[in-house]
Amino acid sequence: MVQNTPQSVLQTYIDGSRDLDRARLAPCFHPQGILTGFLAGQAIRGTPELFLADVEKMAAAGMRNTAYQARVENLVVKGSVASATVVMSGFAGLNFQDFMHLVEENGHWSIISKLFTTTAN
């Protein structure tokens, strides 16, 4: 999948999260990407593989994100780097705020870091 802008990567991330589609989500992340955050107060650190594996398990269990909504906020692009916030509700019954950093290399944008937390609303 060709992803030429930070916006297209983030939209693919949003759509892939909604649909629990690991194959669509995986190319959104940089091969050396990192993932850090808090899931219901528990610290999580690792690579995007943690998220991708959870998405795959949810899909295999027949889970559906029927109340899912998400939007990009505060996207800032400066040359070959970008930063944005993705606000998500109804993902696996939880609400998230994801702080994303993206990088462009060889014409390809990808998420190099995802910092997240669950939120009340």
Question: Based on helices, strands and strand pairing, what is the structural class?
Answer: alpha+beta
Average pLDDT for all residues:
94
- Uncertain stretches of 5 or more adjacent residues: none
Q: Which CATH first-tier class would you pick? A: Alpha Beta
Order of helices and strands: HHEEHEEEE
CATH topology: Nuclear Transport Factor 2, Chain: A
The CATH architecture classification is: Roll
End-to-end distance: 32 Å
Instruction: Characterize the overall form.
Output: globular
Helical amount:
10-25%
Number of helices: 3
**How many β strands by DSSP?**
6
Strand neighbour order, sheet with most strands: 2-1-6-5-4-3
Report the oligomer.
single chain
Instruction: Please give the domain count.
Output: 1
Strand content: over 45%
Largest sheet, strands/sense/barrel: 6 strands, mixed
Give Rg in angstroms: 13 Å
Plain-language structure description:
This protein is an alpha+beta fold and 121 residues long. The protein has helices at residues 6-19, 22-25, 49-60; strands at residues 29-39, 42-46, 69-78, 81-91, 94-105, 108-119. The chain has one domain: Nuclear Transport Factor 2, Chain: A (Roll). The chain contains 3 helices and 6 strands. Strands 2-1-6-5-4-3 form a 6-stranded mixed β-sheet, covered by helices on one side. It is globular and about 40 Å long. The model has no long low-confidence stretch (mean pLDDT 94).
